[in-house]
Amino acid sequence: MSATTETTRTTKPTRGARGGYAKGRARRNDIIQSAIGLFGEVGFHGASLRDIAARSGVSHPGLLHHFATKTALLEAVLAYRDEADEADLDADVEQGRTWLEALVRLSQRNQLRRPIVELFAALSAEATSVDHPAHQYFVDRYLTSVAAARADLERYAEAGRLRPGVDIDVAARAIIALMDGLQIQWLMSLGRPKRAQVNMAADLSAYLDLIIEPA
């Protein structure tokens, strides 16, 4: 009986701890979502931790409990964005799509995630400054993205599907530049009638058709 009593006594705090942990994760996620929106609207430098705390419904000290600095919060926001994108890309590749086909599908999904696109557009422009806390993140991101596009183009070339005269290095950079540029044009077009808005996925797919032969 004493063993049962001890088990009962030890499991109750565990459940409470799990409940508190879940609430903490939920609150942390709320803060990240609020930061995504505000960083996208006014940029990293234009947003304050107090503004983000107010938007997420927590006190300033409550926010600091999760993120001690604005840079730490920015790192969490970028990690959140990467995790979502990488999960989508990996899932599509596992289903048999090429990386470039998965990229088109990602651009299609991004048309339903305006705050994420606004965040990327705002931060990537700010981060050209070497003093920006996200500068190295974007340097690494472009190197990685271009390398992934180049690797996929090389596979197309090996399969005899790359159109004559296509320079793989140039095309890889152009694909990533096109995707990012289309995001800005899409954001600018959102005030127009639906039929006049930029379709990022369709335009990216159309470019790929210019350099890749059909199967």
* Name of the CATH architecture: Orthogonal Bundle
The rough form would be described as elongated
Q: Helix count, per DSSP?
A: 9
CATH homologous superfamily descriptor: Tetracycline Repressor, domain 2
Polypeptide structure, described:
- This protein has 215 residues and is an all-alpha fold.
- The protein contains nine helices and no strands.
- It has helices at 2-46, 49-56, 60-66, 70-94, 99-110, 114-126, 135-158, 168-189, 200-211.
- Helix 1 packs across helix 2 (49-56), helix 2 crosses helix 3 (60-66) and helix 6 (114-126) packs across helix 8 (168-189).
- Keywords: DNA-binding, Repressor, Transcription, Transcription regulation.
- This is TetR family transcriptional regulator.
Summarize this structure briefly.
The chain is an all-alpha fold. It has nine helices and no strands.
Summary keywords:
215 residues; Tetracycline Repressor, domain 2; elongated; disordered N terminus
How do the helices and strands line up, and which of them pair or pack?
Blueprint lengths: L1 H45 L2 H8 L3 H7 L3 H25 L4 H12 L3 H13 L8 H24 L9 H22 L10 H12 L4
Helix pairs in contact: 1-2, 1-4, 1-6, 2-3, 4-5, 5-9, 6-8, 7-8, 8-9
